[in-house]
Amino acid sequence: MKTQQRTTLFLFILLVNSCVVEFIPEIDEEQELLVVEGLITDQPEPYIILISKSLPIGEENVARPLSGCDVWVSDDLGSTYSLQESVAGTFVTDPANFQGVIGRKYTLHINTNPAFNSLYYESLPMELKPVPPIDSIYYEKVIIEDIYGLWPDVEGCQIYLDTHDPVNNCKFYRWEYNETWEIRLPVKIINDVCWVSEKSDRINIKNTSVLDNDIINRYPLKYISNKTDRLKVKYSILVNQYSLNDNEYLYWEKVQTMSQNVGGLYDKIPSAIPSNIWCIDDPNIKVLGYFSVSAKSSKRIFIKDNFQGIINPYERCFSDTVKNILSPTGLGVYFWIMEEGSGYKIITNIRDCVDCTTRGTNIEPLFWKDDNN
């Protein structure tokens, strides 16, 4: 009898474990909402408004831009500025006709296309607040210890930021950055030097309203580990600093709390996080995202230093080559000439090993020579 009970219990457990299915909770909200991301500054540059449709829970995280909308911005003096759609869901201002002014209030207007019910959306009027300059951006080497003591210590890099507002007006800060770094292939070929660029991969905000003085020291803006080749040759980071009002700070704080790896409105945003944009035609319809208005101050630094233990992404290239073959042997096989005119070649099926444009661009950035080192 005991043997039969054990067998029955085993079969029951096996049956339960084989019936695991994805659980998608039922939620009382629309499956498709308007998502808006936009920023107006005081700089003479194009301002971009991104408009897309939200993703139902359980679907793959893929952007769904919403094209064909009418988008414009108005100010508190009655002027209006239309945006043109450059690519699907991306609406851009003309810097020759529109530049934000500190102290002015701006409102975003959106008429969606008939496929999205032809609804009218509008933001709150947002004041363009001044922002102090960034005092300094600097870095320190960080020793990454091997807790087992099997390998030599390697080094990472922590980038810090200092800023302050002498008149104590800016209490809420947000930072975005653009990274650029140089990469070089292990051999001299046509496309052996390139530059890779990436935008911020996290939300950086700071509240100084609880401090006696509006001073920020050693804010940890960006950490770079030895698991990337960013610091292998030469690295640069451009940091943009914005001022926020208290409501927008709470918005970013909630997004940050929900996920520490959200770059703006680039992943799924829970509908519980309030927006400053509403559907005028139907106030019950929720909107995701935020229309930001702020002055901008920027600062760039270059890092060209020796960091111990940085990975070499091209180590695998030489283990995947065949020497002294005079021509490629099939589709998807690439080669480079080691010595011009010698006929000596290396064959590989890894394009990264022979063409750095698979990772970046071979056009040197205009600012790259601004570094004095």
Can you summarize this structure?
By secondary structure, the protein is mainly beta.
Describe this structure as you would to a colleague:
It is a single chain. The chain has helices at residues 2-17, 246-258, 315-319, and strands spanning 34-40, 48-53, 70-75, 80-82, 84-87, 90-92, 105-111, 120-123, 126-127, 134-144, 154-164, 172-184, 193-199, 204-207, 215-224, 235-243, 277-279, 287-293, 296-303, 322-323, 334-337, 345-348. It has 373 residues and is mostly beta strands. Among the domains are: 34-128 and 246-293, no CATH class; 315-356, no CATH class. The longest helix is centred in the N-terminal third of the chain and has 16 residues, at 2-17. Mean pLDDT is 83; it is low at 9-30, 261-266 and 324-331.
Question: What would you report as the Rg, rounded to the nearest angstrom?
Answer: 26 Å
Number of helices: 3
**Poorly predicted regions:** 9-30, 261-266, 324-331
Task: Give the tally of β-strands.
Answer: 22
Oligomer: single chain
Name a few traits of the molecule:
5-stranded mixed β-sheet; 373 residues; 9% helix; 36% strand; mainly beta; globular
Topology of helices and strands:
Layout (H helix, E strand, L loop, with lengths): L1 H16 L16 E7 L7 E6 L16 E6 L4 E3 L1 E4 L2 E3 L12 E7 L8 E4 L2 E2 L6 E11 L9 E11 L7 E13 L8 E7 L4 E4 L7 E10 L10 E9 L2 H13 L18 E3 L7 E7 L2 E8 L11 H5 L2 E2 L10 E4 L7 E4 L25
Parallel strand pairs: 1-18
Antiparallel strand pairs: 1-2, 2-6, 3-4, 3-7, 5-6, 7-8, 7-9, 8-17, 10-11, 11-15, 12-13, 12-14, 12-16, 16-19, 20-22, 21-22
